[in-house]
Write a structure and sequence with these properties.
The chain is of the alpha/beta class. The chain folds into 2 domains: about 1-160, Response regulator (Rossmann fold, 3-Layer(aba) Sandwich), CATH 3.40.50.2300; about 170-325, Reverse transcriptase/Diguanylate cyclase domain (Alpha-Beta Plaits). It has helices at about 30-45, 55-65, 80-90, 105-115, 130-160, 170-185, 200-210, 210-225, 250-270, 285-290, 295-310, and strands at about 1-5, 10-15, 25-30, 50, 70-75, 100, 120-125, 190-200, 235-240, 240-245, 280-285, 320.
Length: about 325
């Protein structure tokens, strides 16, 4: 089994034997001798043990470094193992098992430990064999859980991406546009929107085949990703239509961006496939044109109207929305 470690760009192999991986274990105990004994046992098995002798050090290390397991003493001054478990659970972005070592033998304490998020409880003193077995079992859980989390993240990312172009999809647009619009209103900043599509795309598919059409769509994705700022959002809106949400940008500056995209597409489209040079048209809207009451629906609709106007004016051009377009009834 293999799982992608988020943020590292590397793949980490997970097998059913936790000793086949270099797991990192955080050991929290205010007794230096007990902490060192646990660390030595952990490292003798090939794992990496990191000691924290206070709850504050434990929280800091847990937030700053990756761990596969936490071993915590139940009885510690100021913040005990029960409270520390709650603190760690509240700060965790991935499920890390917690093993509590305790000299408390009553059932109520063990039940309390499980209720606050401890995964397993081991009475002190414990034999090295018993400790190794408990750690091994919890590390298996960690490795399998991490693999599942990685797969879940991958599926979530796929659900927000268009498979052909690699751009964000309509779902991502709906979510991001609402956020960007709210931010623009809060800080009094402009928000521009570009809607573009490939001219006479159906004819391209009919005459040259869908593989040619797909390559042109892929190129639009490549062009957008190389031209649009990382702070903006480029997405495939549907079919041959694309939308760019341009933050902190007026409609005039969004028009300039659209012109760069139009020229870039026309300049290279004829070299990509058997089809001759193709063109795109774009419609522009922005909150500076629509006023403070602009909504996401208004931005999309007015950009769409402007796009239709560009089509009707001869295609291969950029049209910025203005009030006179509202009653034209233009069609693409």
């Amino acid at each position: 089994m293999a799982a992608h470690v988020a943020g590292t760009g590397q793949w980490r192999a997970y097998t059913e034997d936790p000793r086949a991986t270099t797991s990192r274990i955080l050991i929290v105990d205010d007794d230096p001798a007990a902490a060192r004994a646990a660390q030595h046992m952990v490292e003798a098995e090939g794992w990496t043990g990191v000691v924290a002798d206070s709850w504050s050090d434990a929280v800091r290390l847990f937030q700053d470094e990756p761990f596969d397991l936490v071993i915590v003493d139940a009885v510690m001054p100021t913040v005990d193992g029960f409270k520390l478990t709650q603190l760690l659970r509240a700060r965790s972005t991935s499920y890390v098992p917690i093993l509590m070592l305790t000299s408390l033998s009553d059932d109520a304490s063990r039940e309390h430990a499980l209720s606050v998020g401890v995964d397993d409880v081991l009475s002190k003193p414990s034999s090295p064999l018993e400790l190794r077995l408990r750690i091994g079992a919890l590390l298996r859980i960690r490795h399998l859980t991490w693999a599942l989390e990685a797969k879940t993240r991958e599926l979530e990312a796929m659900a927000r991406r268009d498979a052909l172009t690699g751009l964000a999809n309509r779902r991502s647009l709906d979510e991001r546009l609402a956020v960007e619009l709210a931010r623009a209103k809060r800080y009094g900043r402009p928000l521009g929107l570009v809607m573009l599509d490939i001219d006479r795309f159906k004819r391209v598919n009919d005459e040259y085949g869908h593989q040619v059409g797909d390559r042109l769509l892929e190129f639009v994705g490549e062009l957008l990703q190389s031209t649009v700022r990382p702070s903006d959002l480029a997405c495939r809106y549907g079919g041959e239509e694309f939308v760019v949400v341009v933050s902190d940008t007026t409609a005039t500056n969004a028009t300039a961006l659209a012109e760069r995209l139009r020229r870039g597409f026309e300049a290279k489209s004829g070299t990509l496939t058997a089809a001759p040079t193709q063109t795109i048209s774009a419609g522009i809207s922005g909150t500076d044109l629509l006023g403070p009451d602009a909504t996401a629906e208004m931005l999309l609709h007015t950009a769409d109207v402007a796009l239709y106007a560009a089509k009707n004016a001869g295609r291969n051009r950029v049209c910025c929305w203005h009030a006179e377009l509202a009653s034209t009834g233009t069609e693409p």
